[in-house]
Each structure stands twice: as structure tokens, then as C-alpha cells.
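Hi R.,

Here's the input for the FE2/S2 (inorganic) cluster complex you asked about:
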Amino acid sequence: MSARTRPITTIAGTRPFAFSEAALTECRTIMSRYPEGKSKSALIPILHIAQAENDGWLSVNAMDAVAQVMGLQHIEVYEVASFYSMFNLHPVGTYVLDVCRTTPCMLRGSDDLIAHLEKKLGVHCGETTTDGMFTLKGVECLGSCGTAPMLQCGAQFHEDLTIDKADALIEQLRARNSRTNYTDK
Ligand code: FES
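And here is the predicted structure with FE2/S2 (inorganic) cluster in place:
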């Protein structure tokens, strides 16, 4: 997880966002698990729901809807969403590849892995392939240091990576071409 360097997307030009009824019910269920006045603790799971309902990223409209549902100031939502790398503040591809680049992964070759993926996909970290299939990101420790190097795609960890394993993963994801990887469930 890491602090962001890019500004959040402005509201202009982004499409309106509204939670589905099912998502709203889920949000309320999650908030009800916390004591009165402490429902802000539900912010991260609710941001995941908003992200899943907005094609894998959090527009200002989506974050504002989260603030409204939770009764929070907009800035309280922005500051959390902009801190954690699992939240995307810009449109993303079908698959988001979060490659860990913190020291244990770096010592086990994450720099080479990222360089290989950048070349293979024709993008730099933070960019999306022209076909909209992959977004490549370099992120900080994802808590799987014992199986470094690793990357996360959706809810799945891909560990003990080699260049060959990364290539096989890319081909497997291309063949699947499913937009279900945003959800953390
Ligand atoms: S350093 Fe990569 S998972 Fe911890």
C-alpha cells in the first residue's frame, strides 16, 4: 500500500454513480456491524463495493456516493481512498496487476519482473494497455513477503513469480477476459 502521487480525477466528465439496491443493502449490513457512531470503520469494505460497481475504479462521484451513504464528509472518503493502492482513482483495465516492489520482493527480482511486464504489455507502471485489458501498478508490501516476488490481481495472489510464470498468467488472463476481478469477495 502506498501514498498516491497522482491527483484524483475531477468530477467533470465522469459519469454519475449510484449504488445498486443490492449494494446499498450490503453497505447497510456492513455498517450495522459497528457500534453507534463508529460506522466510519466500514469505509474500506464500502469503498470496495463502490469500486466494484464502478468498473474497478473510484470516481469522485462514486466516492461522494460513499460519503452520502455513510454520512461522512467527502474529504474523509477521499483521504482513505487516495492512501491505499487497492483503490484506483482512475479508470483501469479489465485486469489490474499490482506488482509488489518492496524490499523482499525487490531482492527476489521484482524490478526485473516489472521491467519485463512493462515491455511485454507496452506500458509503464500506472498505465493501461491500449486494448484496455491490463493496468500495471507497482505497489508496496502486500504481506506475502515469504513467497516473493508476487503480484495481486483482483482477490488472487500470484506468488513465487518468475518471468515464465508471469507470462503464463498474462496469457491465462487474456484468454479468460472477464471483468469480475474487481471485487474483493
Ligand atoms: S515485500 Fe512483497 S509482499 Fe511483502
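One thing worth noting: Strands lie at 95-100, 134-139, 151-153, 156-158.

Cheers,
M.
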